[in-house]
């Protein structure tokens, strides 16, 4: 049986993992935060077609929050409009009783996860790997910045939350930007309230911290911060509290990476520091310009093969465990096609290789996935299907119709009996019993 948001049973409006969402079987839970939970799902089709997806499902209590719902649906609309290999694709959205996005399923981990893994081993990521990841990220960002509407008008989209948690590094060697939950766009129906800062404080651009005009150059500063941290292996602006963090973003000197890490490629310092100029006009003006500057350095190992080899070597155990969990996850039967989701983008061609993980992002309090296996009992929640409800409704309607017929017949017989002895006897009422 399937779980449809618009017909959800009350007992399911909990944090328990549903067996299915719309046309997608839910296989396992990756992570859960304050606003949403991310699941691995699967959709099957004819002749053995199947596709793994990531499903970002908002917590049920947020469904009645009009501002949040509008923001969530805006994210779906914007993200689905960006078609680029360095942007995580959005495939479907449900705006029924439950809100959820169905997204491309990327096998890999966030850049933040890579940095932490290296730190645990008392190492840093290689400059070549870092540069390749940032080039991919900036290429995806540029595609988002250049998004236009049906009339060709620029939407002025700005991500506003570029951070290591929102950069997915795939085992295929390709990195992708994700989570447009707080993105700004001129055509967006939900707008930021005046004076409200959006984004993680330690990755804000100075003008963003001052709530000044929103431009794509904010994302460039944030990407510069990500690049600095990935090279150095520690936070650049994060301090003990938010006020101190914002103070560091606005005022504290920014050390050149080579002053902390020996042996960085020539010219890399200059690229990083230009991206981190506090005056927006002094920065790279587009993400494409930033990416071109990194490409021009011709850093050794700055290619997809280096990234892929690193991911498969360092995360070999985690990837094997995750694939095994997906393989062994209990499969639930699915609803007929089209139950509860709206297609926002043309589905990709059938794939022979399944992919694995989507890392939750800012809208999930930046939790990382893979904290542990999901309790398999979460997939055993009792559901009432639409077909069973329809049968019950027809049975009740039949009983009510029969009762009404009996009452009308009895009233007619009583009326005729009172009209006199010459009146013909009223015919006995008959009732059609409902089918059991």
CATH third-tier fold name of the largest domain = Transferase(Phosphotransferase), domain 1
Order of helices and strands: EEEEHEEEHHEEHHHHHHHEH
* Strand arrangement in the largest pleated sheet: 1-2-3-4-6-5-10
The geometry reads as globular
Question: Quick one: CATH class of the largest domain?
Answer: Mainly Alpha
How many domains? The number is: 3
Largest sheet: 7 strands, antiparallel
- SS class: alpha+beta
The total beta strand count reads 10
Rg value: 28 Å
Going by CATH, what is the homologous superfamily of the largest domain?
Transferase(Phosphotransferase) domain 1
Separation, N- and C-terminal Cα atoms: 23 Å
Q: Which residue ranges are poorly predicted, with pLDDT under 50 across at least 5 consecutive positions?
A: 1-14, 188-195, 333-340, 343-396, 422-436
Question: What does this 3D model show about the protein?
Answer:
With 436 residues, the protein is an alpha+beta fold. The protein is 34% helix and 12% strand. The strands form two sheets. A seven-stranded antiparallel sheet has the order 1-2-3-4-6-5-10, with helices on one face. Strands 7-8-9 form a three-stranded antiparallel sheet. α3 runs antiparallel to α5 (217-232), α3 packs antiparallel against α8 and α5 crosses α7 (268-275). Mean pLDDT is 76; it is low at 1-14, 188-195, 333-340, 343-396 and 422-436.
Features:
three-stranded antiparallel beta sheet, seven-stranded antiparallel beta sheet, Transferase(Phosphotransferase), domain 1, globular, alpha+beta, disordered N terminus, 3 domains, disordered C terminus, Phosphorylase Kinase, domain 1, 436 residues
């Amino acid at each position: 049986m399937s779980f449809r948001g618009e017909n959800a049973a009350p007992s399911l409006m909990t944090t328990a993992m549903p067996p299915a969402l719309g046309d997608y079987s839910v296989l396992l839970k990756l992570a859960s935060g304050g606003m949403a939970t991310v699941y691995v799902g699967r959709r099957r089709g004819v002749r053995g077609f199947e596709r793994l997806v990531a499903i970002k499902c908002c917590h049920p209590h947020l469904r009645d929050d009009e501002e949040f719902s509008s923001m969530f649906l805006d994210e779906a609309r914007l993200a689905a409009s960006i078609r680029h290999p360095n942007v995580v694709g959005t495939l479907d959205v449900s705006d029924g009783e439950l809100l959820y996005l169905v997204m491309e399923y990327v096998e890999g981990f966030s850049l933040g996860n890579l940095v932490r893994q290296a730190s645990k081993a008392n190492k840093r990521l290689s400059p070549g790997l870092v540069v390749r990841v940032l080039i991919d990220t900036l290429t995806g960002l540029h595609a988002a910045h250049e998004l236009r509407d049906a009339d060709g008008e620029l939407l002025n989209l700005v991500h506003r939350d570029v951070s290591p948690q929102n950069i997915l590094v795939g085992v295929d060697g390709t990195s992708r930007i994700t989570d447009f939950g707080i993105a700004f766009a001129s055509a967006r129906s939900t707008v930021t309230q005046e004076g409200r800062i959006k984004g993680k404080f330690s990755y804000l651009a100075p003008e963003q911290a001052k709530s000044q005009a929103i431009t794509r150059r904010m994302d460039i500063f944030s990407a510069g911060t990500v690049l600095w941290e990935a090279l150095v292996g520690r936070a650049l602006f994060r301090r003990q509290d938010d006020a101190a963090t914002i103070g560091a973003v606005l005022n504290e000197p920014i050390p050149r990476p080579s002053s902390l890490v020996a042996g960085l490629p020539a010219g890399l310092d200059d690229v990083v520091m230009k991206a981190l100029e506090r005056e927006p006009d002094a920065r790279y003006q587009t993400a494409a310009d930033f990416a071109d500057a990194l490409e021009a350095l011709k850093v050794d190992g700055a290619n997809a093969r280096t990234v892929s080899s690193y991911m498969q070597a360092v995360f070999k155990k985690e990837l094997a465990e995750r694939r095994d969990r997906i393989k062994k996850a209990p499969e639930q039967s699915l609803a007929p096609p089209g139950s509860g989701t709206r297609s926002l983008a043309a589905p990709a061609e059938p794939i022979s290789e399944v992919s694995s993980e989507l890392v939750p992002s800012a809208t999930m309090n930046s939790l990382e996935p893979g904290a542990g296996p999901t309790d398999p009992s979460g997939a055993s929640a009792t559901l009432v299907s639409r077909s069973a409800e329809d049968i019950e409704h027809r049975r009740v309607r039949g009983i009510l119709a029969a009762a009404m017929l009996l009452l009308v017949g009895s009233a007619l017989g009583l009326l005729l009996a009172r009209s006199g002895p010459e009146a013909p006897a009223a015919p006995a009422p008959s009732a059609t019993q409902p089918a059991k």
